[in-house]
């Protein structure tokens, strides 16, 4: 057993951290947050593409680097640390994964465009309030043409291609691949709790689509993304905690540093425990993902539930530790708070994933008995 | 990142399985009185020692197998899978004997180490006192030098297994004019020495695993002193550091047992396993207990790479004790009024969950309270400043 990253992966981490510290300061995240006209940072996105990050896990014959998902999760954690305002998850964890797992030969021709950054993905499942339901989907495909409304869609404003959950002609919900560069597509920006990661309403009227998979593919994509997003959340949670610790060492009240009071110590110790627990669950998740283990459904759910808790707790208590200054617009703490909420809802709520965890474990234990 | 056994680990696991299966009839269980269990565990310990499965990570020089930490974990996993409890020898082999190996004379080591590994001699740890629990440096038991001997007097408390122990590791104040952390000296004592009196403590859980130990002018030869006079704090910390690595073992019933139990428990029109609130609480419990287990694997990986385990190793007991308490409460309460039935014949899972529920408060206190563990994480891991230390540098006699 070897339950940690390899030396090469630590080198990859070091390079990624250096690159992102230089190219993605929190001021850049704030820039997207405060600019209603932008849903992501195009310069940073191009920078990641130039580093080969969108090509990392793609097969070499399609212009990729053929590296593993464990290598990818190293980047995910670093992107999470800096709250990178880019459509990386939508493009790499969803679009690229879907095509690699289930794409036809023609669909696989899109992969080089993902590697080169021309192609940006998005996942369009939801249609309204409540957790995405497999059954209550209204969007439908007839004669290969998609009509309906999907909202909210993360990265729906900048995406070129969408994975859309819609009914086929026999009324069965399936996943379709749609090019968004089409006159039948209308995109409307929607205000988000985290404007540094823009969301949109996508209105489809007669847009040509191709089927790519069924509920199994969707589940597999969600499980994989749950693990990779968990690493983003852990990156964000660690950084939020670091900021709180630094402030607690510096700020004095009643004649001593606030970090010397047990009320603050215990709160931050709990945040540390959440982060470590989340990291361990995420390591197991990435192992299960890379090893294609039958434990992936519960390993992924555990990684996600744990990471959702960790980043939320760290972001929430970082503001509390900072006191009044932490509640101002100018302080950076709300960027973490907003991103924690974005990530908690990005692929179904923590409630839904707790339920999935129970169901997956019951299924797995039932099978092995 | 690879969760499967390496070829060497797989080979060791097979060897361990073959050994355990060959000795199927010798495996101890939780059944019977304490005396009966102790007898079976002693026999089992001797068999393990003979075949190189006791103290797997220790040097061969001391009767170990010179194996890796991972091998020790694999062996323990396989033992636990066969229902073998981890009992009686943990304090001696986990904490006292490593301290003996580090601080005692060559002759003493030759006399003491091997019998402890074989389960013939059992050790206890005599650190806590009525006025020195979380704040161990408040120790008041006295050690007064008289010629080649020391005279120990005072009271120790919360000593697990003192009633069946042959030896004890004890810390006492040898110079009260020094500041708190100085002026302490550590010894090992024979538990049958004249003047040692062991009285069981009746715990809230009904059990009596702990004791008060009174020292009434107990004479201890100077050659049983470990480390220099006045350096006892360092020796005690060395002993406790060994304890930390052990912490955070799996406690309570497994996830699979919990799910199966929930499936059998009626709730509303269906079962507890269909209840959203329970499924959510289960998930939160699962990620934390499973997370601690997985964190141990990270620690082991660091050790197998020759690195010092990172600070993440310190979170184990803080998480598992609390989670055990709350999940036990949830499962017992979900039985409705019948949850009150605490009877190994009538209650679910032979009343194991009821037992855990009454035991959990003690686990949250023993070996570092939740609060002290949080302080340790905050100060040593996160680097937050210590609170005021009004007693720092003052002679012990002038402190509260």
From TrEMBL, chain A:
Domain Acyl-CoA dehydrogenase/oxidase C-terminal: 221-351
Pfam families the UniProt entry points to: Acyl-CoA_dh_1 (PF00441), Acyl-CoA_dh_N (PF02771)
Coiled-coil intervals: none
Domain of life: Bacteria
InterPro entries (alphabetical): AcylCo_DH-like_C (IPR036250), AcylCo_DH/oxidase_C (IPR009075), AcylCoA_DH/ox_N (IPR013786), AcylCoA_DH/ox_N_sf (IPR037069), AcylCoA_DH/oxidase_NM_dom_sf (IPR009100)
One Gene Ontology MF term: flavin adenine dinucleotide binding
Needed cofactors: FAD
Key words of the record: FAD, Flavoprotein, Oxidoreductase
Domain Acyl-CoA dehydrogenase/oxidase N-terminal intervals: 6-118
Gene3D superfamilies hit by this protein: Acyl-CoA dehydrogenase/oxidase, N-terminal domain, Butyryl-CoA Dehydrogenase, subunit A, domain 3
Family membership: Belongs to the acyl-CoA dehydrogenase family.
Protein name listed in UniProt: Alkylation response protein AidB-like acyl-CoA dehydrogenase
Species the sequence originates in: Sphingopyxis panaciterrulae
Automatic annotation (TrEMBL), chain B:
Domain Acyl-CoA dehydrogenase/oxidase C-terminal residue range list: 230-382
Family per similarity comment: Belongs to the acyl-CoA dehydrogenase family.
PANTHER family hit by this protein: ACYL-COA DEHYDROGENASE (PTHR43292), ACYL-COA DEHYDROGENASE FADE34 (PTHR43292:SF4)
SUPFAM superfamilies: Acyl-CoA dehydrogenase C-terminal domain-like, Acyl-CoA dehydrogenase NM domain-like
Taxonomic placement: Bacteria, Pseudomonadati, Pseudomonadota, Alphaproteobacteria, Sphingomonadales
Cofactors that this protein relies on: FAD
GO molecular function, one term: flavin adenine dinucleotide binding
Protein species of origin: Sphingopyxis panaciterrulae
Protein name stated in the entry: Alkylation response protein AidB-like acyl-CoA dehydrogenase
Stored Gene3D superfamilies: Acyl-CoA dehydrogenase/oxidase, N-terminal domain, Butyryl-CoA Dehydrogenase, subunit A, domain 2, Butyryl-CoA Dehydrogenase, subunit A, domain 3
Acyl-CoA dehydrogenase/oxidase N-terminal domain mapped to chain residues: 6-120
